[in-house]
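Final report, closing paragraph on structural work. Over the funding period we assembled a curated collection of sequence-structure pairs, and we close with a single example.
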Amino acid sequence: MKRVLPLFFIVPLLQACSFRTDFLVLNTGEESLLAEVITKHGPGVSGLFERASSVKRLVPVSTDMEVGWDQAISVNADSIAPGHYRVAIPPRYALDIGTVHNEEYTKGKRQFMNGRTFNLESVTLTRTGKTVTITPGNFDTYFKRVKKSFDVYCCF
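Its predicted structure, as stored:
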């Protein structure tokens, strides 16, 4: 019994070591923002931005950049082709476009644990006559870490 007791304390500690980094497109405007995401896909591609489901997650974000994960809503994306979809993002909401587990994203990082790759081709954001296209080449110009969170945001 004395050998089993320490396991009860070690297991919760190890579980607390797990973390995730979400890549979010945040609508900071007063009107809806259209996000069009294209990812590389195919046999053998294990991507950071690969989402097999057409259901995407939108999360509310407060003015001080607090993400309301417990208030997330699911929306159906307008699926154009495999790895290519569009989602309208309401004001003060963020679209979760990708996740990496137990690894911190740093500027320019393109290879991740377990063979996962940076498989984003582009994110095009459109709002009332203004369009921005984000590619791997300019990704770090638009996506930044906020506060001490592991999450990476693109504010538009």
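The longest helix spans residues 5-16. Residues 7-14 have pLDDT under 50 and may be disordered. We thank the funder for supporting this effort.
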